[in-house]
Every structure is written in structure tokens, then in C-alpha cells.
Design brief:
The complex is a heterodimer of chains A (342) and B (252).
Chain A: H1 3-7, H2 23-45, H3 47-70, H4 81-91, H5 101-114, H6 127-138, H7 140-143, H8 165-174, H9 189-194, H10 206-218, H11 225-241, H12 246-254, H13 258-265, H14 276-296, H15 303-320, H16 336-341
Chain B: H1 2-13, H2 28-34, H3 38-61, H4 71-93, H5 95-101, H6 112-122, H7 127-156, E1 159-160, H8 165-168, E2 182-183, H9 200-220, H10 241-246
Antiparallel strand pairs in B: 1-2
Helix pairs in contact in B: 1-7, 3-4, 3-6, 3-7, 4-5, 4-6, 6-7, 7-9
The chains are: A mainly alpha (342), B mainly alpha (252).
């Protein structure tokens, strides 16, 4: 390294190529992409879903503000990431959840998972998923009591609780009766597609989530690699597990939080690999763990756990797939240190 | 006069400055496992403290007899004897506690705090100082366990001192009018405890928060944080044998 190069006045610190994209702009795109699912949630689960989303957003923004103040760090509310976390957290909750649980989830999402580690871009796992998992582990009853979609329209009943299609599918697989899948125990495939089923606020309406995903891909906010490979891996595993039953595979793809997780949560910038190769490894891992938990685990749903586990592995995936610097010689197994020093 | 002052220092250092759980991060396994309920934590803390004081005294008294090369097995034999005695006493007088502590009572034998104090302190210091050191460390261990279990039990199970009779039965039947714990969520219709705090994940969470708090408190006294800095930053560095090995000339 010669000093003359460093002393030239034109030398500036990297990055030299700047993009006009900002965190705020990207987060705004994500919020826009979540709007269809939000409208679907209000239509399917009634005004209470709007209240849950509002409370979740307010709590996340408040916790972000307060924790930044206490830690004497700069105010980061304007990057909108707390709002995105709030929406995603709300989308991961059932409509019947007692409202006092939402601040607890928001606290763990924003303060513990995000601000303890340094705020936006520093979180090692997806904050909204941590909020969901904390609530799921703490209040398993409240977090898995499901209300049927459109039940709020009917005056004669308050709520209809029912099993999610995923629980039914898990039962079918474990009792080795997949072939009886067309029986009346499951909603029709088109109801699954439009969200007329039991589940969390944001995960039920597949078409709304796909619309949001297409918007994000078109705006180049996310690359299609992670959602496509994630969903594809689950599809392959389900297809094999059901010995080629296409109905079972389709139901598995449309049920649970797979689409929401694959499109909106596995693609979080801070917690997914940067390069395409890494993204594919990451998404395949998510898919395998999701399929394994759904088929063999005691919980019916495994999307959130699979994403969290792969989030934790991201630094290792990055190291495996790090690009070689220009002119760098590939290290040989023996005597690699000498080669590097030479 | 000077000796008296230093004895006081040996005692108080175990409470915060060199707190075995929160500053030295020793004995993590029993800490996480038994801090799910306050009664268990207190039982564990007291049992370990008794073993710690007694083994410190005996090891210190025998420190000139035990050959340097076989000191660790010798320490373990001494510690194991006291653990056996304590375990038999607990089994005889507070059998309910023995049942809930389960394997963690005999596991005091391999508790890092006790072996650590034997190695770092009792093996090199006179009997009285070692006893005081053991007492301070034992109280520090019990206090850390108590804080942790207070948070974990009240948030995770919604109770405080649940099954207190497990320990109180030592003093006879129906002590304190048969006090058997408080249910914090008794009158709460909608609220419910967060199971997370009883689970291992919540244990690690509370543990981390308490370590951060201990760091904060000791930072006010100008002490280094309990972080991964390598051996020389350890609060025990001044009397650690591993560091001393590096500079052989300094010792003996």
C-alpha cells in the first residue's frame, strides 16, 4: 500500500456509488405492499382487526421512541421500520387475542430483538417474529384460539372457534389418511385462496399477500429468490411426503403463515443473506425446517421458527458464500496460510 | 485492624463486585435450572452456601498438605463429602425440597463456584479468610438466585413463594399459619402469567438482564464489565493460577 495514493485529494471514503433508495422509501413500499392484506383482514375478521393493527403499530412506535431516548441514541422513527414491525406483528396474531398482550409482543419485538442489538439494521432476527414467538410460547391458549373468517358478520353468534386447516392437515398426515383429504373437514381450495378460513389476521388471504409480493418484486424491494425457493422447497417436501397428492401440497402452501413469512418476513434486509447463493441456501433451510415442523412437530405451524433459526445461521451462510476479492487465489487446504501471506 | 478490614472486603466482594453468578458467570446451570421458583432457588442457594463455606474451611486447612499436582481431585473429594452430607440432611428434614431440586442437589459437587473458590481462594489463603470468602460468595449466589427466581416466578407462574411449606416444614407443621405462597393473578380475570419466563428461554433472558444490571452497578464503581475480554480482565484475575503460570517467577 503506497502513501502517495492515499494522499491524493480526490480519494474519498467508500461507498462511491450511491443509490437514491432510502430506508424510509423501502419501508414505505413494504407498507404499501401490506395494504391489500390489511384490507382483507378487515373484511374477513371485522373492525377488531383494524384495532389490533393500530394498537400494535402505536406500541411499536412508542417503544422505539422511548428506548432510543433512554439509550441516548438518535431518533429513528422516520425510517418507518417500527410501523412495518407493528403491522407484521399484528398480522401474526389471531383476531381473538386479548388486547393487553399486544404491548408485550411489541416490547419484545422492538426493545429486546431490535434496540438491544443496536436498532434498525443491527437486529439479528426478525423483530416481528420474536414478538409473535414470545406471545406464542407465553400464551399458547390465546395465540391458538382461532376464529372463522366472516363470523363477525353473523349476529346470532359471537365467534366461531375452529381448527385451522393446518391443524387438520397435520392430523391427516399423522394418522396416515391423506387420501381422504377431499372430505368436508377442510375449506374449499378457493376459500383458502381468498382467505375464507381460520387463521392469523394477515396470513389468511393468499391473493392479497401475492399481490403485495408482486408489488415488492416489481419495485425491486425484494428479490424473488427467497420467497420462490422457500415456497418451492416446502412444495417439494409436501409433495414427496404425501406421495404425490397435489391437493395436500396445495393446501399446505396456502395454509398457515407460509406466504406471509416467505414474502414479508424471510426477506427482511438485516436478517437475510446478501448474495443470491446465500439467499438460496437460506430459503431452502427455511423450507426444510417449515416442512419438518409441520409434518413431524407437535406444533402445527413452523414458519416463524424456521425463519428465526435460519436468521441465526445467516452470518455463517454469508461466510460460506463470501465472494472472492479481485485477484484473490482460492485457498488450498494445505499450506493455505502461507499462500495467503505470500 | 488491617486484617479486620480485609476480612470485611473478602465478605462483601462476593455480593456484587465478584458476584459468582452475575460477575464471574459461574454456576450457570443450577442458576437457570432452579430459579423457576423462589423456594427452589432459596433451597439451592442455602445448600450450596453451606457446602461452599465448609469445603472452603477444610480445603484451606489442608492447603499445605495437599500436593499441588493432585489438588483438583482432592478438592472434589472434600466437596463431594460435604454435598453427600447436605443431601442426606435435606432428604431427612425437608424431603419435599429434595424432590423438587432433584438432580441439582447432588450436582453441587461439580458446581463451578465451589471448585472455583477452592482453586482461586481457599487453596492459598488462611482458614478464617476462606470461611468469610465462602460465606460472601454463598450469599452472593443465593441473592442472585433469589432475584432471578423472583422475576421468573412472579411473571412466569404468577405466584410468589409457592409451596413455601417445602422449606418451612423444617420448623414444624403449619409455620406462619400454613403460608404457602401468594397468587398474584388470583383476582385478575383477563390477565395471565407469561409462561415464557418459566421456560429456559425466559431464564436466559432474565439472566442476561441481571448481568447487564450488575455490569451497570459495577461500572459506577469503575470496575470492568463482565465481558469476553480474555483472562486478564476477569475479576478473579489477581489470584488466578492459570494467569500465574504465565509468569512463573512471580509465584514461589
Amino acid at each position: 500500500m503506497s502513501d502517495t495514493v492515499l494522499n491524493k485529494p480526490t480519494v474519498s471514503a467508500s461507498p462511491h456509488i450511491r443509490s437514491s433508495e432510502t430506508s424510509t422509501g423501502i419501508m414505505l413500499d413494504v407498507i404499501i405492499a401490506l395494504i391489500p392484506a390489511f384490507i382483507a383482514a378487515i373484511c374477513l375478521f371485522g373492525p377488531k382487526s383494524a384495532a389490533i393493527t393500530a394498537i400494535s403499530i402505536i406500541c411499536c412506535v412508542l417503544f422505539e421512541f422511548i428506548s432510543r431516548k433512554i439509550m441516548k441514541r438518535s431518533n429513528t422513527l422516520s425510517d418507518l421500520s417500527a410501523i412495518v414491525t407493528g403491522i407484521l406483528l399484528a398480522f401474526n396474531l389471531p383476531v381473538s387475542i386479548p388486547l393487553w398482550m399486544i404491548p408485550i409482543g411489541a416490547f419484545f419485538a422492538i426493545v429486546v430483538a431490535k434496540q438491544f442489538f443496536g436498532g434498525i439494521g443491527q437486529n439479528f432476527v426478525n423483530p416481528a417474529l420474536i414478538g409473535r414467538i414470545v406471545l406464542m410460547v407465553s400464551f399458547p391458549g390465546a395465540m391458538s384460539s382461532w376464529t372463522n373468517a366472516l363470523a363477525w358478520h353473523r349476529d346470532d353468534i359471537d365467534t366461531v372457534s375452529s381448527a385451522t386447516p393446518l391443524a387438520t392437515l397435520s392430523e391427516l398426515f399423522k394418522s396416515r389418511t391423506i387420501d381422504s383429504i377431499d372430505a368436508s373437514s377442510l375449506p374449499a381450495l378457493q376459500s383458502m385462496f381468498f382467505g375464507h378460513r381460520a387463521g392469523c389476521l394477515g396470513e389468511v388471504c393468499a391473493i392479497a399477500l401475492i399481490l403485495g409480493g408482486i408489488y415488492l418484486i416489481a419495485r425491486r424491494v425484494i428479490s424473488p429468490a427467497i420467497p420462490a425457493v422457500f415456497i418451492g422447497t416446502v412444495a417439494v417436501f409436501m409433495f414427496i411426503a404425501s406421495k404425490g397428492n397435489i391437493y395436500f401440497t396445495l393446501y399446505e402452501l396456502l395454509s398457515g403463515g407460509l406466504l406471509l413469512g416467505a414474502i414479508f418476513m424471510a426477506t427482511d434486509y438485516a436478517t437475510c443473506p446478501i448474495r443470491l447463493k446465500g439467499k438460496i441456501i437460506y430459503a431452502v433451510g427455511c423450507g426444510i425446517i417449515t416442512a419438518a415442523i409441520r409434518l413431524f412437530g407437535s406444533l402445527p405451524e413452523g414458519v416463524s421458527f424456521s425463519i428465526i433459526i435460519m436468521n441465526i445461521l445467516v452470518p455463517h451462510i454469508e461466510r460460506l458464500t463470501a465472494p472472492r476479492a479481485f485477484g484473490e487465489v482460492k485457498e488450498k487446504k494445505s499450506g493455505s496460510k502461507e499462500a495467503k501471506q505470500a | 485492624m488491617a486484617e479486620k478490614k480485609s476480612l470485611g472486603k473478602e465478605f462483601t466482594k462476593g455480593l456484587l463486585i465478584e458476584n459468582p453468578v452475575l460477575r464471574l458467570v459461574l454456576g450457570t446451570c443450577p442458576t437457570l435450572a432452579t430459579s423457576t421458583s423462589m423456594v427452589n432457588a432459596i433451597g439451592m442457594g442455602i445448600s450450596a452456601s453451606i457446602v461452599l463455606v465448609l469445603s472452603n474451611i477444610v480445603i484451606s486447612a489442608l492447603r499445605k498438605v495437599i500436593p499441588q499436582k493432585v489438588r483438583i481431585p482432592a478438592y472434589v473429594v472434600i466437596i463431594a463429602s460435604f454435598v453427600t452430607i447436605v443431601q442426606m440432611l435435606v432428604k431427612a428434614f425437608v424431603p419435599a425440597l429434595d424432590k423438587t431440586l432433584g438432580i441439582y442437589l447432588p450436582l453441587i459437587v461439580v458446581n463451578c463456584i465451589i471448585l472455583g473458590r477452592a482453586e482461586a481462594f481457599a487453596g492459598k489463603n488462611p482458614v478464617i479468610a476462606s470461611a468469610v470468602d465462602g460465606l460472601g460468595m454463598g450469599i452472593g449466589f443465593t441473592a442472585a438466585l433469589f432475584c432471578m427466581s423472583l422475576i421468573r416466578e412472579s411473571l412466569g407462574a404468577g405466584t410468589m413463594f409457592a409451596d413455601a411449606q417445602n422449606i418451612l416444614s423444617l420448623f414444624g407443621d403449619n409455620v406462619l399459619n400454613g403460608f404457602n405462597g401468594i397468587n398474584l393473578f388470583e383476582n385478575a380475570v383477563h390477565l395471565q402469567p407469561m409462561t415464557l419466563f418459566i421456560l429456559p428461554a425466559g431464564g436466559f433472558f432474565v439472566f442476561g438482564l441481571l448481568i447487564a444490571l450488575a455490569n451497570k452497578l459495577s461500572a459506577k464503581k469503575g470496575l470492568p464489565k463482565a465481558e469476553l475480554h480474555g483472562c486478564e480482565h476477569c475479576p478473579m484475575a489477581s489470584n488466578c493460577s492459570k494467569l500465574a503460570e504465565g509468569k512463573e517467577e512471580a509465584t514461589v
